[in-house]
Design brief:
The complex is a heterodimer of chains A (about 450) and B (about 425). With about 450 residues, chain A is of the alpha/beta class. Chain A has 3 domains: about 160 residues, FAD/NAD(P)-binding domain; about 100 residues, Alpha-helical ferredoxin (Fumarate Reductase Iron-sulfur Protein, Chain B, domain 2), CATH 1.10.1060.10; about 160 residues, FAD/NAD(P)-binding domain, CATH 3.50.50. Chain A is about 35% helix and about 20% strand. Chain A has a 5-stranded parallel sheet with strand order 4-3-2-5-19, sandwiched between helices. In chain A, strands 7-15-9-10-11 form a 5-stranded parallel sheet. Chain A has a 3-stranded antiparallel sheet with strand order 12-13-14, with no helix packed on it. In chain A, a hairpin with a 5-residue loop joins strand 13 and strand 14. The N and C termini of chain A lie far apart (about 70 Å). Chain B is an alpha/beta fold and about 425 residues long. The longest helix of chain B is centred in the last third of the chain and has 16 residues. Chain B has 2 domains: about 325 residues, TIM Barrel, CATH 3.20.20.70; about 80 residues, Alpha-Beta Plaits (2-Layer Sandwich), CATH 3.30.70. The mean pLDDT of chain B is about 95. The relative contact order of chain B is 0.11. An 8-stranded parallel beta barrel of chain B has the order 3-4-7-8-9-10-17-18, surrounded by 7 helices. A 4-stranded antiparallel sheet of chain B has the order 5-6-16-11, with no helix packed on it. Chain B has a two-stranded antiparallel sheet with strand order 1-2. In chain B, helix 8 crosses helix 10. The chains are: A alpha/beta (about 450), B alpha/beta (about 425). Bound molecules: flavin-adenine dinucleotide, flavin mononucleotide and iron/sulfur cluster.
Chain lengths: ~450, ~425
Amino acid sequence: MTADLSAGPDIAPGRLSPQALAEAFDDAHPPLDRRQALIEASRCYFCYDAPCIEACPTGIDIPAFIKSIATGNTRGAATTILDANIMGGMCARVCPVEELCEEACVRNTAEEKPVTIGALQRFATDDLFDRGLQPYERAAPTGKTVAVVGGGPAGLACAHRLALLGHAVTVFEARDKLGGLNEYGIAAYKVPHHFARREVDFILSLGGITVQTGRALGRDITLAQLRCDFDAVFLGMGHTGVRALQAEGEDMDGVMNAVDYIARLRQAEDKGTLPVGRRVVVIGGGNTAIDIATQIKRLGAEDVTLVYRRGEEHMSATWKEVDWTQTNGVKVKLWAQPRRLIGWTGADGTTAVKEVAFEYTQLDETGRLMGTGDTFTLFADQVFKAIGQTFIPSALDVAEPLEMTGDRIAVDADRRTSLADVFAGGDCVPGTDLTVAAVEDGKVAAHAIDRMLKG
Amino acid sequence: MADLSNDFAGIRSPNPFWLASAPPTDKQYNVERAFKAGWGGVVWKTLGEDPPIVNATSRYGAVTYNGVRVAGLNNIELITDRPLEVNLQEIKAVKRAWPDRAMIVSLMVPCEEHYWIDILKRVEETEADGVELNFGCPHGMSERGMGSAVGQVPDYVEMVTRWVKQHSRMPCIVKLTPNITNILGPARAAKRGGADAVSLINTIQSMVGVDLDLMAPMPTVDGYGTHGGYCGPAVKPIALRMVGEIARDPDCAGLAISGIGGVSSWREAAEFIAMGAGNVQVCTAAMTHGFKIVEDMKSGLANWMDDKGHRTTADFRRAAVPRFVNWEDLNLNHAIVATIDQDLCIQCGKCYIACEDTSHQSIAASRTPDGRRRYEIIEEECVGCNLCMHVCPVDDCITMHPLATGQDKLTWKHHPNNPMRAVKEAAE
Ligand SMILES: Cc1cc2nc3c(=O)[nH]c(=O)nc-3n(C[C@H](O)[C@H](O)[C@H](O)COP(=O)(O)OP(=O)(O)OC[C@H]3O[C@@H](n4cnc5c(N)ncnc54)[C@H](O)[C@@H]3O)c2cc1C
Ligand SMILES: Cc1cc2nc3c(=O)[nH]c(=O)nc-3n(C[C@H](O)[C@H](O)[C@H](O)COP(=O)(O)O)c2cc1C
Ligand code: SF4
């Protein structure tokens, strides 16, 4: 590739035709049709004490729902799923099943080919959504009220279960749409056709959940006030901050937080309007790094390199996700960390990134990461930082602070915080940052709150 | 929301899924697990006279069909091998603990009245909801003049049923053997004897295979084998037909029917009920998958009923019975032909060779200009037999479509080719 190195960064919208973009961002893994679902369902052995159930953070009764698909009881399959995981539809699309249920499937032993549980889960839940069925009915009103802060998977799962149990729930969401990262973060080709919104609508259609969008804890409301006005509070605020690279020059133009860009991409009416660099460098080794690398490539970037400072076995992204970037033509470079961003200054005096200087890394005898002193440089019109998000507790009250575990809110097995009437779950508490884990937190907390309120 | 609660010959249960008399209902431990799992009722493993029988070791043979395990199951077990008193005490304890579930006691004692009087009295003390007379076991017991040896002789069926009704207040279900030429013989005899219900089928006499190394029928017991009783998914069509025969027989009117044989999911249950059964009993499916399968049976049936607008199983019970007619009542002027959806066709050629070699040479095989295989129905030749549709591996690729013949309904009874036609018409 020859790039004009004097003309400034090559960042442009509309690198692909609208049609090519539509194809690139349609369902990455198209749904099973009925016949495929039946064949796949017949592969399930209906194991006793099935390992897949244990591997699912929400404990979906997987053999039971697959049996129901096999017998043609698709609605029964969907309710079995949703009983355990109200976002079963989303999880079917976004769960790293290769490290969860499908990794545990006993079929791996003989064939290395697990039953495609995720795809079957999608088949069942899609069917219920397509038929517009509402399988749930709320219990009689209890007269109790609960505030849920954050309308992401954790908050919505908690709100739904509480409403189902008869409590009156109010969700306070800082953004103008519910869904959390389902709506703003998950890769677009995993959840096309506004699935996140459809799922939120389904959850709210139960009734008993009042939503206040554009209302942020710490800005418009305080925890003290919520504790006063409601019988219990659930915090599901997710991550609120992004880690810095700690490399020189990371504030230059063209350097972006991957999550912010993905949020823009997810909300863009027309993906042809997004600015896309010709040469892109992504820094990080998790979900977010994989997702931004693949999506920017699919937006038409010519050359995308993902650089991670450790080896593949250390990546929080799964092997399947790493494979996925590579089938999308992303180059993956391991064992290197950014040291310095080199820019060029335009006529208007602003500096935009041009190159990133990396140093190779290795582990020392004690297992600590260290630079080798060897360096290399990559040209970059756009650099995405995807080295992790953090929870910034600034929204919480200083007067009565919650106990923390590291930089996250400390909770017990019931997802109860150090304040007896305040519960928390999802990315803002310790544990794996996955949609399915957030849903489980919300569900567990809802039951604990229910016990407390009825107790 | 569909209501699955069931009233079978006056016996109430929360759903129409009962476990059939067999190992799953052999003792308190199993039955309580079954009730916990959600089964509506059980027919306790058949009780007999003490001393109890002795079972052989190696008891089951199974048919694995193209990788599907237990497509059919064959067993050489007999009735309970536990002392009568132990069974009776457990039955009583379980019924006490689970009053809402149906508890039926299956019985098999020799064909002398006093045996029946004795055992009925003892069963009555358990407060069980009813008895089922095992006239069906096709091996081991029949050699001793019980089981299917009774079930195959309508007069015996009637006689024993009469004793039971005479000496007991309990509803009486007569379990029929399929190892008989005409199922209506024993069914009508049961009705004459005063039975409240029949249940069918018990197992079909079978030999599941020959061990080609031992040169003995399977399952083998110390180098030898015997014939056994066949059940499981493979036997459903046989059972369903027999249920239908009884359901539409005017002489059996009023007799409740418990459908048994290959019920593996809610779908077979719905079929049996549509064909006249008041409930169903299950054995092999539970033995293959455990008691938990009842969950899908219940939710599947309820969801299907909701979709169809049926509130209770009574709403569709017998719905298919009026359409079960004899061949001579079918409309011979009705015509259908096969159509192949070329977009779905995967060019396997299975339809072609089936029709070409074994049917009516009604499918044309050709190549398209670009060398692809193409199969097309020759409508004028097609007799509408459905064979190609059944052998086609792709759902909905081959479908059958009615042809407008413009002709009125014409049955064999009135067909010009029927030499008996004049006689029949005169008789009508
Ligand atoms: C780019 C990316 C891709 C991902 N891909 C996957 C994937 O493929 N599979 C997977 O399982 N997981 C994936 N994850 C992780 C997953 O999205 C999260 O673990 C999950 O969304 C956490 O749910 P949550 O409810 O805790 O937080 P969030 O989804 O972050 O929701 C928190 C909500 O709280 C709101 N909020 C925040 N602060 C306040 C406040 N002060 N007041 C009121 N509301 C507030 C936010 O606006 C948001 O709506 C991905 C994450 C990212 C960043
Ligand atoms: C191992 C085994 C033992 C059985 N024992 C009895 C019995 O003691 N009494 C009886 O009435 N039927 C007995 N049966 C027959 C079943 O009750 C039932 O009629 C038959 O298996 C068909 O149902 P299925 O296809 O669901 O298995 C037995 C079946 C099996 C497989
Ligand atoms: S199922 Fe297996 S372990 Fe159990 S009794 Fe039979 S042969 Fe023995």
